[in-house]
Amino acid sequence: MDLTTDAIQRIVSGRYIPSPCLRVMNISFIPDSSSQGSQRISCYLSDGDNFFTPCIIPVKSNITLREDSIIILQDYSFYTSPHFGKPIIEVYSYRSFPDVPDTDSVPDIDDNSCVFDSNPVAIISTPERQPSPQGVPLLSQQAIQYLPIGNPIPQISSESPLVSGGLLDLSPRVSRSMTPSKRPAFSQVHFSPASSLLAKRTHIAPERPIPIFNLSFQSSWTIKGRVTVKGALGPLKHGGNWFYFELSDLSGTIKINAFQAETERFFGVIKLGHVYAISNGELKPAKLPFNTTKHLREITLKHYSIIREELDFHDADFPNVPSNFTKISHLRNSPISSVVDVIGVCVFVTLVNKGACRSVLIQDDSSTEIRLSIWNLSPNDFNPPIGSIIVARRARLTQQHCGLILTVAGCATVDVNPDLPEAVRLLDWFNNHGSSTSFTSLSKGFFGEISLINSLPQSLQDDAIIYTNLEVIIISGCGYVYKAHTVCGRRIKIYQRDIPVCESCLDTLPQLSDQLLLTLGISDSSGSVEVSVFTDVALDLLSKTTNDIPNISDASLSLAIEGFIGKTFQLCIKSRMTFFHGEHQLQHSVKYFSEKVALEGPSGLFSF
Q1: What does the DSSP 8-state code read for residue 128?
Q2: Other CB atoms closer than 10 Å to residue 93's CB: what's the count?
Q3: How far apart are CA 517 and CA 534, in angstroms?
Q4: CB 70: neighbour CB atoms within 10 A?
Q5: Do residues 107 and 77 lie in contact, with contact meaning Cβ atoms separated by under 8 Å?
Q6: Which helix (H) or strand (E) holds 427?
């Protein structure tokens, strides 16, 4: 008779399996204190792959149970017993197969090791195992311990063993009590599911993964799923770090924790959106409210845990990473302290707070950019390349001297180039349109490390953009107002018969807008250079608005620029190659400015 495959794992996962066929192992007699005089046994039930204890089975006069007997459960339940304080499988009715051969693998139990006091019952605890001929771990004689039930019970004689040759001997006996000195204390009893005990001794990972929903107290297991959530590194009170992630398949999601050495092993391995096969670890009850997966268990990775990234799989077999990204342009009207998920392209990286924090400038297809400052990763652990996709989850929107900043601290996370459809679409858009898009910044006047003018690039590739922070003195300046094409932003020239033509796209019927351009000469100890200041920054510098541009005269503009001569400014310079009138030119333009030092600090960032 074949055992019912996976019956144990499905039963303990809360599913009712009709008529499962299981093997009985490690039989122990449980006397009953009730007036009916019913008798039961405590045992292991195995489906050939996994086993569970304690399992309570009633003794029937017409059925002889042997060690390794095969039975079919007709009526049973899986619940948490108030007596044991643990989940048990209790069998109410069953059928057995009398043609199962006897086994000699079970040692006799003498009277000293199985004599019951006024109210204990023999159960399985922290056993020592000897492999049976069938390859299923068995309990040795020393594995029998005692747990109080609460009512007086009949005394058992020690004249002959309770179990002989694998059979229960239920004949009446006269009792002999165990002395208090020999009786195990209640606090010493530790009831563990059999699979947990086995996992401490053998860590052979099965090749066939099981559904995540079915993971409970298996002896050894492998699950396969996609990482749908990855937490940040968190410090532990006594040193070291920890982190968690969530693994999902179509059956469910489970939380997985890593501490200390396992954090160092696996934090860099686990990538959001990637698929992994994970084998073996410590299964624990889920800790609410910190676990929101709705799974009854969670996993703690151990030294024997194995994680392998899967490259050959069907994408439809695993759920996608949930995403609800907020466009950066929408953050302008979001309440301060809002917690959001954003995705953007990294265009500038710098250090802030005296080198203690890495901050990046990200842009998205809403033609808007914002600073993202990462406080829960060291600068050595987070230094994304220019042009990479950055995903920040649970980032907090804060208002600082330089405008709006997204801070990543506490439970917030940041990922570089995640395997997400949104990341692919955004990178494709940026490669095709990023260089020609005029971005509005929500983080104006932001500065990190200060460089010198002679560090500005002398040449660049066509698609490269470099940002440099300078502290300079303005030594000269000029400016003018002009008409520009609202689509491409280029200046409009008026040809004969008053026909306006765009210098870039040669559109002869362009929509026009008023634009302002300043050219400033700046100097520091390393040299001098001219930089351009385009409309948005120029209006901020002059404290003007777009509606004021038509009223700006050459005289008033010159007078305003003279007021800046000799003053010290901090400037964020954007360097890029431009193509104008058939020539490539290196352009340095002012991205942000400030008349005094503005450094971002961590105060107020950790009020999660």
Answers
A1: -
A2: 12
A3: 5
A4: 18
A5: no
A6: helix 421-433
Alpha carbon 377 to chain centroid distance? 15
| Burial class of residue 394 in the structure, from the number of CB atoms within 10 Å of its CB (0-12 exposed, 13-18 middle, 19+ buried) | middle
Q: Which amino acid is at 183?
A: R
* Residue 162 exposure: Cα atoms within 13 Å on the Cβ side: 22
List the one residue out of 147, 87, 572, 131 whose CA is nearest residue 369: 572
What are the pLDDT digits (tens) for 36-82?
A: 557 888 888 988 888 888 899 998 888 888 888 899 998 888 877 77
Determine the residue type at 141.
Answer: Q
Residue bearing tokens 């400033």: 520
Q: In Å, how far from its chain's centre is CA 393? A: 10
Return the pLDDT at 300. 95
The owner of tokens 């001098």 is 528
pLDDT band at 594 (very low <50, low <70, confident <90, very high): confident
| Each residue's pLDDT tens digit, 274-325 | 999 999 899 999 988 888 898 999 999 998 899 999 988 998 999 988 888 9
106: left (phi over 0), alpha (psi -120 to 50) or beta: beta
**Two tokens, residue 137:** 């771990």
Cα dihedral 214→5→59→195 (10° resolution): -50
Tokens, residue 487: 């689509």
Q: Would you give the distance in Å from CA 114 to the centre of its chain? A: 49
Residue ranges and CATH numbers for the domains of the chain are 7-195 (2.40.50.140), 203-317 (2.40.50.140), 328-441 (2.40.50.140), 453-594 (2.40.50.140)
What percentage of residues in the chain have a pLDDT greater than 70?
A: 71
Give how far Cα 143 sits from Cα of 7, 229, 260, 416, Å. Answer: 25, 41, 33, 51
What gap in Å lies between CA 176 and CA 62, rounded to an integer?
A: 29
Half-sphere exposure of residue 567: CA atoms within 13 angstroms, side-chain side: 16
Paired with 476 in beta bridges are 521
Element (H, E) at 561: helix 554-562
How far is 173 from 170, CA to CA, in rounded Å?
Answer: 9
Q: Which residues of 448-485 are buried (b: 16+ CB within 10 A; e: fewer)?
A: beeeebeebeeeeeeeebbbbbbbbebeebebebbbbb
- For 241-297, give the secondary structure using H, E and C: EEEEEEEEECCEEEEEEEECHHHHHHCCCCCCCCEEEEECCEEEECCCCCCCCCCCE
Q: Is 575 exposed, middle or buried (0-12, 13-18, 19+ CB in 10 A)?
A: buried
pLDDT over 80 (residue 538): yes
